[in-house]
Amino acid sequence: MDKNLPPLRSDQVTLRAVSADDLAMFYEHQLDREAAQMAEFPSRDWDAFMAHWKKIMADEVNILNTIVYDGQVVGNIVSWEHEGEQEVGYWIGREYWGRGIASAALKQFLEQVGIRPLYAFVVKHNIASIRVLEKCGFVLYKEDGDGFALRYE
Fold it and tell me: pTM here?
């Protein structure tokens, strides 16, 4: 993180509905090797990536948001139902890590989406993401193999 950056203002981070135009940027973000290792989530090739997003965009139950920072698409935050639990996940482009963007986006998401409880799963070595979740009020729910399940009431 560049220590010379000005403090993050809350109006610099906004959420909006995902559009097809956002997908190319999301694709590039998930190709980043360091980010994929941090999340322990394998990158998809273009066809698999687009098939996944086509499927989740077609499901009206899913909540799909693009994270915009200072006018730029920097990631996404999504929520979906899985085995009876509402889950939330986010992905921020690595060039934007360490600026408080994920925390600001998750805080806005929690204010806008009233579904409770919400669950998030994170691998144990992803300390930054664990910290984002805890700062936003998620608490440890259970240890789950190589990761943690956190819950927000």
Answer: 0.92
Per domain, the residue ranges of the chain are: 10-152
Please name which of 151, 76, 68, 141 lies closest in space to residue 117, comparing C-alpha atoms.
151
Q: Can you read off the two tokens belonging to residue 71?
A: 């006018």
Q: Are strands 85-92 and 118-123 parallel, antiparallel or unpaired?
A: parallel
pLDDT 10s digits, 49-88: 999 999 999 999 999 999 999 899 999 999 999 999 999 9
* Cis previous bond, 6, omega within 30: no
Question: 30 near 49, Cβ under 8 Å?
Answer: yes
Catalogue the E-assigned strands of 103-146. Answer: 118-123, 139-144
The pair of three-digit structure tokens given for residue 70, joined into one six-digit string:
């200072």
In the chain, at which residue ranges do the beta strands (DSSP E only) sit? 13-17, 63-69, 72-82, 85-92, 118-123, 139-144, 147-152
Judged by DSSP in three states, 131 sits in helix
Superfamily holding 10-152: Gcn5-related N-acetyltransferase (GNAT) (3.40.630.30)
